[in-house]
Amino acid sequence: MTEEDTNHRGFVIIVILVLALLTVALPVGLLTWARTSQANFAESEEVGVNRLGTATADIEVGAVRALLGARNMAPGDVATGSVDVRNAGSLPLRYAVTAEINQGPLVEWLRWDIWAQPAGCSTTPPASLLREAVVLTAPVAEILGDPLTGRDPGDRRLGAGQQESLCFAARLPINASNVVQGAEIAVDFIVDAEHDIEPTP
Questions:
Q1: Residue 81, helix vs strand vs coil
Q2: CATH classification of 59-195 is 2.60.40, yes or no?
Q3: Counting runs of H as helices and runs of E as strands, what totals does the chain give?
Q4: What residue segments make up the domains of the chain, in order of their start?
Q5: Nearest Cα to 169, choosing from 118, 104, 116, 119?
Q6: pLDDT digit string (tens) for 84-129?
Q7: Per-residue DSSP letter, 149
């Protein structure tokens, strides 16, 4: 074999090796390009400061002392008074009103009218009353609704931040007996409220 043949064969081997390398490298490059070309842009956002808490049930009354008083009533007289009731909490409320009364002859003679107005009370009861000519029985009388837990048809409803005035008129009938002369009674009004969770019937 001549030197020329040896050089020629070496050239052929080098060419074959180069082509083989290109053949191996090309698919790898194609695969690499194909993989990166399928990537999607992505982003994440954080919604932070998530807090949970409980609401409040808070009923307020405007009067902490006597809302009405009359020491010299005569037959036919009427004593009137009012109390503002406000929902100071963040939940809708319903409330009931009861009265605690000391026993005496005047209890069975007084007739009570109760009504509600958005703000303030007139001295004359309107045509539509919540309760009319009620006799409060000692020692405890339910005036509006039921103080026990649960909905009662007579409960008053107040949304969060709402308020109303409860109005009271105590009337001594014109035919009141002499046994009530010089008599007195003491009445405490109690407002009980709870979360108005049940739907309106």
A1: strand
A2: yes
A3: 1, 9
A4: 1-33, 59-195
A5: 116
A6: 889 888 889 899 988 888 888 888 899 999 999 888 887 788 888 9
A7: S
